[in-house]
TrEMBL record:
Cofactors named for this entry: FMN
InterPro entries assigned to the protein according to its UniProt record, in alphabetical order: Flav_short (IPR010087), Flavodoxin (IPR050619), Flavodoxin/NO_synth (IPR008254), Flavodoxin_CS (IPR001226), Flavoprotein-like_sf (IPR029039)
Family listed: Belongs to the flavodoxin family.
Record domain Flavodoxin-like: where: 1-136
Keyword Electron transport (UniProt): yes
UniProt-recorded name of the protein: Flavodoxin
Single GO term (MF): electron transfer activity
Keywords assigned by UniProt, alphabetized: Electron transport, Flavoprotein, FMN, Transport
Role played: Low-potential electron donor to a number of redox enzymes.
Source organism (scientific name): Mobilisporobacter senegalensis
PANTHER family, sorted: FLAVODOXIN 1 (PTHR42809:SF1), FLAVODOXIN 2 (PTHR42809)
Length: 140
């Protein structure tokens, strides 16, 4: 399993690591990949797209690398299993709702409730691990 994320100040990256722990605890291999280091073609080889982005811009996913990659998935992910997560600070989680809606409009199957956390995942480590475990339980 690859966990593909963007993180400006480390919060979403910490979530990715904890989610990875949950994936490993469920018996799957995991690789954390910063979004700049993967192509669309490599991403599409994955059984599940596990994707993380903080709220950036004005209630948007990260706009220079993550958003173009996501937009390029239109027409390519019908029926694809997807799990989304990320950190935010001051909004109501609107960026994640919009991200889910976009993925669904591309035909993706959101297999677990998206995980959003306010800033640092400190105190919510188990929630992150459970998210990782839930993904693996779904695909087993
Ligand atoms: C340029 C910029 C724009 C942001 N826009 C939002 C936003 O629209 N809504 C929100 O809740 N948080 C917003 N944030 C806060 C980040 O989502 C928050 O700090 C998050 O924890 C950063 O995660 P990271 O450490 O993985 O980069 C913004 C932060 C930056 C730097």
């Amino acid at each position: 399993m690859k966990i593909v994320y963007y993180s400006g100040t480390g919060n979403t990256e910490k979530m990715a690591k904890l989610i990875g722990e949950g994936v490993q605890l469920s018996g799957s291999d995991v690789e954390l990949v910063e979004v700049s280091n993967i192509t669309k073609e490599e991403l599409l080889k994955e059984e599940v797209l596990i994707l993380g982005s903080p709220a950036c811009g004005v209630e948007s996913i990260e706009e220079t690398v993550m958003e173009p990659l996501i937009d390029s998935l239109e027409g390519e992910i019908n029926g694809k299993k997807v799990a989304l997560f990320g950190s935010y600070s001051w909004g109501q989680g609107e960026w994640m709702e919009d991200w889910e809606d976009k993925m669904k409009s591309y035909g993706a199957d959101i297999i677990v409730n998206s995980l959003i956390l306010l800033e640092d995942p400190f105190g919510n480590e188990d929630e992150c691990r459970e998210f990782g475990k839930a993904i693996i339980e779904y695909v087993k």
